[in-house]
């Protein structure tokens, strides 16, 4: 599955290929194309069991499209601006969106129920869920096009850690000098990496305190 | 009816003539009612004596209508002739009504009864008996009347209700007139109330012309019915400009109101006629308590916030935990907002004029129509509003600047204005009695309420450069630069006497700035000089001690360039920021009683360009705004300790709350487009809240009126501070533990909900296990190490080249 961008002269389509039929790839003949004329898709992931995809749009909408029929299964609009990234939890029951509207939000994969919101002061480019804790890391910062005139302090190019249930921030990691475009947890949950517009990929291992830290509740 | 002179609540004051519907007996412009709890100590200062029964002080100018025989104020020089505007209806002021009409036996006694009693609005109804008034002087006992009057007084004269109080006092008058010495019978005192009218804008005359006036009045008003009673309140041997008339029946009174309201007696006197009962109605229907916010049990303050780039305006209670929203309105103002000096009104700006809001629900209280209005200024007493618009000024109808009466909404006077660069153009004296404007070589001082030139002429001051009123008395300070051999001069002038109380000559002056201390105890004139034989500018601070005889002056000289100067409000210290970036220092000076000016302390290497004293003095925040990235230094000047050094990055504004307990730093969207937020700090520099608001523009604290506590009471409170602080500490602890408990509680429920959700999701996940296994060809991907059998160990070997380079052997 991939989608095209209408900026490049094509209308935005989601194209589905079945890898078991290698000719589809070779001849670039997807078995299904879903047109998205309203607002282009900016991010998408497969849902659990591969029955549908979850697509995030430029206008902040989220859609579920069936991978068999292509029909739109459900639609919600919780974000006000472009959805930059969608990542699922390891068990694929939940996913987190990162949006230009300065928030990241947690949803249920099947129902698209909005569960949690994580607010920052800058556009969020990427968000990832910890595989071992109820933690989430957000990466972002002032958009690259605005950055030239501002210092890194204003840019806030920081990875920020939130508690998944309380929506409260409990940690920040500085270091990038451009907006963070992508964040990911190591599958073992003991480290994470971030890739920035500054051209660096930073790999951070958590301190022992991170594993001991607990919210008072 | 407390303190009608200053408080914005003259029940008699009413809408301008352009509201004809009022003539049909509809209630006139509701006056701002000031229901202030007497026992509330921090209420409006003007009501002093409001509960003390009749007072004798002569009515202040503000309440005095235009003197009758006077011609309109002559136009001075550049101003066009003032329209002979009828003075806003003068208020029938009960406090000023002398007790002499009272029966001589026990003057004022009913009133005393009344003072202690609480207001019981529903009882007022008993006063207005719907049956027509019957002249019953003879048959019923006046003594009984007194008796009943006494009984009634607690209701009618309750101090908290202006209207009813007025009503009560009128009773006194009526009875006095009606009964004379006959005190034995009992009249039905309430009967006549519906038949009574109040006529405003009646010429003020002395006893010699009173008879004539009465004849004229009679002629006009007996057209509508038989006048059975009349009363002309007097003060200082002159009538007060308003009268009470009583007809045989209420229908006559209604007729009179309908027909005589707006009657032009002559050029300066247009009658305003109202039913007496309407005053009472107004009192109960108007905006409610305009000072309700002072009655907050926790003594919290309010502030206004403009955000979403000006589209939204909200009012909040400042609460330590988090701001509590009171009002939130979209497009409440088109540009910005202003609070009035005592916090009573919130002014919003619109293309078509200014609107004032107030009361508990922030209802609209007044509108002033002025196309394209840009700038406004309140008089310190909150009685007048000055508005400026660059549009529509014509030669013969000046309206660039308009002065309005806030209570009536009436335009008092218009002025021409070519240049608004130095707003405010008109500077007000501290009590709002005078306002002044400077034009080239002229200082024009006007007086209220006539809005005419004081003594009908301006002051000719050649070369006047700047002037400023003392905030503590009617003294004006101004300065003129050097002119050939005549030295530069700073002059202090007492008004309205125009007496020069101090003149100080200065030499080699480049520029002067006038800085008054908030109480008017000191004046500092910052003088930039270029002394002969030296290079560069030297700054002298000329400190005038206003409260001492002859106004002694002392001088502090500084060679460094001065960045900022500020007096300690309510104190005798001042702070100066001096030096060049990046070596900026702050120095604190103390003006001692003997006039010696002592340097208390200098802090070097400060990141600051602005000084913000706490409104209570002692504490000061030095801020490096804008280019200095928002560095903040919190200083206690009692022992000159740096309490905290902090930063609000890119901060553009700093605002102390009116009590000096909190301070807000903010990044306004108007100056910076990102990180728009306001942060709340304690006076010691402890950060309490970070409030991010989308495109936040401006935060303004709601001012408080001056305290009603006397010096002694304040001293006593300071003495007993330990006692109070214990109570407050306990309260704080309670609310804190409650807050943390609440937080934990909230987290717990959140966690529970989340767990519940996770459990459901897990169950679903487990249900799907088989499907998943099938899809993935039997490979279990649920655990990282679930397929250990499939793991393959791979050994990768690669060679490292070895190369030996022989270095040249030492010989």
TrEMBL record, chain A:
GO biological process, one term: cytoplasmic translational initiation
The keyword Transcription regulation belongs to this UniProt entry's keyword annotation: no
Superkingdom field: Eukaryota
Positions of WD repeats: 76-117, 173-203
SUPFAM superfamilies: Quinoprotein alcohol dehydrogenase-like
Entry keyword set: Cytoplasm, Initiation factor, Protein biosynthesis, Repeat, WD repeat
Keyword Cytoplasm: yes
GO molecular function, one term: RNA binding
Gene3D superfamilies reported in the protein's UniProt record: YVTN repeat-like/Quinoprotein amine dehydrogenase (2.130.10.10)
InterPro entries: eIF3i, Quinoprotein_ADH-like_sf, WD40/YVTN_repeat-like_dom_sf, WD40_rpt
Protein's recorded name: Serine-threonine kinase receptor-associated protein
Automatic annotation (TrEMBL), chain B:
Gene3D superfamilies, per database record: 3.30.70.330, TolB, C-terminal domain, YVTN repeat-like/Quinoprotein amine dehydrogenase
Upper taxonomic lineage: Eukaryota, Metazoa, Chordata, Craniata, Vertebrata
Family statement: Belongs to the eIF-3 subunit B family.
Subunit field text: Component of the eukaryotic translation initiation factor 3 (eIF-3) complex, which is composed of 13 subunits: EIF3A, EIF3B, EIF3C, EIF3D, EIF3E, EIF3F, EIF3G, EIF3H, EIF3I, EIF3J, EIF3K, EIF3L and EIF3M. The eIF-3 complex appears to include 3 stable modules: module A is composed of EIF3A, EIF3B, EIF3G and EIF3I; module B is composed of EIF3F, EIF3H, and EIF3M; and module C is composed of EIF3C, EIF3D, EIF3E, EIF3K and EIF3L. EIF3C of module C binds EIF3B of module A and EIF3H of module B, thereby linking the three modules. EIF3J is a labile subunit that binds to the eIF-3 complex via EIF3B.
Compartment annotation: Cytoplasm, Stress granule
Protein role: RNA-binding component of the eukaryotic translation initiation factor 3 (eIF-3) complex, which is involved in protein synthesis of a specialized repertoire of mRNAs and, together with other initiation factors, stimulates binding of mRNA and methionyl-tRNAi to the 40S ribosome. The eIF-3 complex specifically targets and initiates translation of a subset of mRNAs involved in cell proliferation.
An example molecular function term from Gene Ontology annotations: RNA binding
Residue ranges, compositional bias (Low complexity): 151-160
Compositionally biased tracts (Pro residues): 56-74
Protein name: Eukaryotic translation initiation factor 3 subunit B
Entries under PROSITE patterns matching the protein: RRM
Location of the RRM domain: 195-278
Pfam families for the chain: eIF2A, RRM_1
Major site of localization recorded for this protein: cytoplasm
GO CC annotations on file: cytoplasmic stress granule; eukaryotic 43S preinitiation complex; eukaryotic 48S preinitiation complex; eukaryotic translation initiation factor 3 complex
A biological-process GO annotation: formation of cytoplasmic translation initiation complex
Gene that this sequence comes from: EIF3B
InterPro entries the UniProt entry points to: 6-blade_b-propeller_TolB-like, EIF3B, eIF3B_RRM, Nucleotide-bd_a/b_plait_sf, RBD_domain_sf, RRM_dom, TIF_beta_prop-like, WD40/YVTN_repeat-like_dom_sf
Biased composition (Acidic residues): 40-50, 92-103, 120-139
Highest taxon listed in the record's lineage: Eukaryota
HAMAP family the UniProt entry points to: eIF3b (MF_03001)
Keyword set, alphabetical order: Cytoplasm, Initiation factor, Protein biosynthesis, Repeat, RNA-binding, WD repeat
Region span, Disordered: 1-160
């Amino acid at each position: 599955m991939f989608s095209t961008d209408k900026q490049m002269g094509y209308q935005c389509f989601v194209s589905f290929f079945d890898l078991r039929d290698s000719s589809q790839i070779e001849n670039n003949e997807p078995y299904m194309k879903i047109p998205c004329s309203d607002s282009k898709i900016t991010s998408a992931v497969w849902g659990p069991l591969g029955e549908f995809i979850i697509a995030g749009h430029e206008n902040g909408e989220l859609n579920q499209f069936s991978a068999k029929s292509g029909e739109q299964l459900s639609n919600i609009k919780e974000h006000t601006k472009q959805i930059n990234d969608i990542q699922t939890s390891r068990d694929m029951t939940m996913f987190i969106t990162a949006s230009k509207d300065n928030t990241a939000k947690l949803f249920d994969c099947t129902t698209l129920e909005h569960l949690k919101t994580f607010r920052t002061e800058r556009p969020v480019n990427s968000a990832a869920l910890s595989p071992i804790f109820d933690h989430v890391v957000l990466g972002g910062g002032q958009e690259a096009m605005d950055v030239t005139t501002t210092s890194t302090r204003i840019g806030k190019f920081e990875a920020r850690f939130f508690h998944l249930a309380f929506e409260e921030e409990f940690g920040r990691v500085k270091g990038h000098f451009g907006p963070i475009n992508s964040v990911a947890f190591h599958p073992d949950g003991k480290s994470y990496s971030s890739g920035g517009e500054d051209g660096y990929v930073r790999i951070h291992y958590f301190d022992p305190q991170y594993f001991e830290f607990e919210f008072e509740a | 009816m407390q303190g009608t002179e200053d408080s914005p609540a003259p029940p008699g004051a009413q809408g301008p003539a352009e509201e004809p519907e009022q003539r049909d007996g509809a209630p006139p412009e509701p006056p701002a009612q000031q229901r202030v709890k007497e026992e509330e100590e921090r209420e409006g200062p003007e009501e002093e004596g409001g509960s003390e029964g009749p007072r004798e002080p002569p009515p202040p100018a503000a309440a005095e209508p235009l003197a009758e025989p006077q011609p309109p104020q002559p136009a001075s020089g550049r101003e066009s002739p003032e329209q002979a505007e009828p003075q806003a209806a003068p208020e029938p002021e009960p406090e000023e009504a002398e007790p002499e009409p009272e029966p001589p036996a026990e003057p004022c006694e009913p009133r005393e009864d009344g003072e202690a009693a609480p207001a019981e609005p529903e009882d007022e109804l008993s006063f207005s008996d719907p049956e027509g008034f019957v002249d019953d002087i003879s048959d019923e006992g006046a003594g009984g009347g007194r008796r009943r009057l006494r009984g009634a007084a607690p209701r009618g004269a309750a101090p908290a209700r202006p209207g009813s109080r007025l009503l009560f006092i009128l009773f006194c008058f009526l009875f006095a007139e009606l009964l004379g010495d006959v005190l034995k019978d009992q009249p039905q005192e309430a009967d006549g109330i519906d038949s009574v009218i109040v006529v405003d804008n009646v010429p003020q005359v002395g006893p010699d012309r009173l008879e004539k006036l009465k004849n004229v009045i009679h002629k006009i008003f007996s057209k509508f019915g038989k006048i059975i009673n009349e009363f002309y309140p007097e003060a200082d041997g002159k009538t007060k400009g308003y009268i009470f008339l009583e007809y045989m029946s209420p229908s006559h009174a209604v007729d009179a109101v309908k027909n005589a309201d707006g009657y032009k007696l002559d050029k300066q006197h247009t009658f305003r006629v109202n039913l007496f009962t309407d005053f009472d109605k107004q009192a109960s229907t108007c905006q409610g308590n305009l000072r309700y916010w002072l009655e907050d049990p926790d003594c919290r303050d309010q502030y206004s916030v403009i955000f979403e780039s000006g589209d939204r305006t909200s009012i909040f209670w400042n609460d330590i935990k988090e701001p509590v929203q009171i009002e939130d309105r979209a497009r409440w103002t088109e540009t910005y907002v202003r609070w009035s000096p005592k916090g009573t009104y919130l002014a919003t700006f619109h293309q078509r004029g200014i609107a004032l809001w107030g009361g508990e629900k922030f209802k609209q209280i007044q509108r002033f129509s002025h196309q394209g209005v840009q700038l406004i200024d309140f008089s310190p007493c909150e009685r007048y509003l000055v508005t400026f618009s660059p549009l529509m000024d014509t030669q013969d109808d000046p309206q660039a600047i308009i002065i309005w009466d806030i209570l009536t909404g009436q335009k008092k006077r218009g002025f021409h204005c070519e240049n608004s660069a130095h707003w405010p153009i008109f500077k007000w004296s501290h009590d709002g009695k005078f306002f002044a404007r400077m034009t080239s070589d002229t200082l024009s001082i006007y007086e209220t309420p006539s809005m005419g030139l004081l003594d009908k002429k301006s002051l000719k001051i050649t070369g006047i450069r700047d002037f400023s009123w003392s905030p503590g008395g009617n003294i004006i300070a101004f300065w003129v630069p050097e002119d050939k051999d005549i030295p530069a001069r700073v002059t202090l002038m007492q008004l309205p006497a125009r007496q020069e109380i101090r003149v100080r000559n200065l030499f080699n002056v480049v520029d002067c700035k006038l800085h008054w201390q908030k109480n008017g105890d000191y004046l500092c004139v910052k003088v930039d000089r270029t002394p002969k034989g030296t290079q560069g500018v030297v700054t002298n601070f000329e400190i005038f001690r206003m409260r001492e005889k002859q106004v002694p002056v002392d001088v502090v000289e500084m060679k460094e360039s001065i960045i900022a100067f500020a007096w300690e409000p309510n104190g005798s210290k001042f702070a100066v920021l001096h030096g060049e970036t990046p070596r900026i220092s702050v120095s604190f000076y103390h003006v001692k009683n003997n006039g010696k000016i002592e340097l208390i302390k200098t802090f070097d290497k400060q990141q600051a360009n602005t000084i913000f004293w706490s409104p209570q003095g002692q504490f000061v925040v030095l801020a490096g705004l804008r280019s200095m990235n928002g560095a903040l230094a919190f200083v206690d000047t009692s022992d000159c300790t740096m309490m905290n050094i902090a930063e609000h990055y890119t901060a553009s504004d700093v605002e102390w709350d009116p009590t000096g307990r909190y301070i807000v730093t903010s990044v306004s969207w108007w100056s910076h487009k990102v990180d728009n937020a306001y942060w709340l700090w304690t006076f010691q520099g402890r950060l309490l809240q970070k409030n991010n608001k989308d495109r936040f523009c401006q935060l303004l604290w709601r001012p408080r009126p001056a305290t009603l506590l006397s010096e002694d009471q304040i001293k006593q409170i300071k003495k007993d501070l330990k006692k109070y602080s214990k109570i407050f500490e306990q309260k704080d602890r309670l609310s804190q533990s409650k807050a943390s408990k609440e937080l934990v509680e909230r987290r717990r429920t959140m966690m529970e909900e989340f767990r519940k959700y996770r459990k459901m999701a897990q169950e679903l996940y487990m249900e799907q296990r088989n499907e998943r296994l099938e899809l993935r060809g039997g490979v279990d991907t649920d655990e990282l190490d679930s397929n250990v059998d499939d793991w393959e160990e791979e050994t990768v070997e690669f060679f490292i080249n070895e190369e030996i380079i022989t270095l040249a052997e030492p010989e």
